[in-house]
Write a structure and sequence with these properties.
3 helices, Immunoglobulin-like, alpha+beta, four-stranded antiparallel sheet, 2 domains
C-alpha cells in the first residue's frame, strides 16, 4: 500500500526563502528514477530556517533515496535513504503485528488467570458431597459458583461415597475440559436425559 509521509530536508539557514526552487525525486536502490523531479507541496517548514518539507507518496516496498535539490546555477543536493518496510507501511504493519501478538499474550494471561482462579477454588473453595447422586462438587472461593462436579465411583464403577476408587467429571466449567471432553460429556448428558 502506498505511504504518504511528511519528509523534510535541511539546506541550512543560508538557503531560506527558496521554496520555488526546491524539488525532490525518488530513486530506487538500483539507481533507477521512480518519480521524476517534483515541486508539488514543497514548503519551508519554518521561515528563515532553510528546512523544507513535502508530503511525499512512496510506492509499495520502496527502498531507495529521496534526492532533494535546489535549482540554480550552482544546484545544491541532499539525499535521504528511505525503506518503506521500515519507515513507511512496514512500520504500520509491524505495529499491527505487535498489537496482534500483545492481544494473543493478553488472551494467554487471561487464560492463565482463569486457571489460577480455578486452582484456588479447588484448593481454597468450598466443596460438598451429595449422597443421593454420589457426587462431589467443588466451588470457587466465593462458595457460590460451581467449578466441577465429580461422580464418585467404587472399584467396580458403581456410585459410592464410602469406597471411592475413581472420580469422573459429571459437570464442569469449560476451561478445565478439552473440546473433545466437552463434546463427549454433552453427548453422555443428552443420552442420559440430563440436558
Amino acid at each position: 500500500m502506498p505511504t504518504t509521509l511528511v519528509k523534510t530536508v535541511n539546506f541550512g539557514s543560508t538557503k531560506t526563502g527558496r521554496t520555488a526552487t526546491i524539488g525532490y525525486r525518488l530513486i530506487d536502490d538500483t539507481g533507477t528514477p521512480i518519480q521524476a523531479r517534483s515541486q508539488a507541496g514543497v514548503y519551508e517548514a519554518f521561515p528563515g530556517t532553510g528546512i523544507y518539507a513535502a508530503n511525499i507518496t512512496f510506492p509499495d516496498d520502496f527502498v531507495g533515496t529521496i534526492l532533494w535539490d535546489i535549482e540554480g546555477v550552482r544546484p545544491v543536493y541532499a539525499a535521504e535513504e528511505f525503506n518503506n518496510s521500515i519507515n513507511g507501511t512496514g512500520v504500520s504493519q509491524q505495529v499491527a503485528d505487535v498489537t496482534m501478538q500483545v492481544g494473543i499474550v493478553t488472551d494467554q494471561v487471561s487464560d492463565l488467570a482463569d486457571e489460577i482462579r480455578f486452582i484456588r477454588g479447588m484448593t481454597a473453595g468450598r466443596w460438598t458431597l451429595d449422597s443421593k447422586d454420589s457426587t462431589m462438587t467443588f466451588y470457587d472461593e466465593s462458595g457460590r459458583n460451581v467449578l466441577v462436579t465429580y461422580e464418585m465411583l467404587d472399584a467396580r464403577g458403581r456410585p459410592s461415597l464410602e469406597s471411592v476408587y475413581d472420580r469422573r467429571i459429571k459437570r464442569a466449567i469449560p476451561m478445565i475440559m478439552s473440546l473433545t471432553e466437552q463434546q463427549d460429556m454433552t453427548a453422555r448428558m443428552q443420552a442420559s436425559g440430563s440436558i
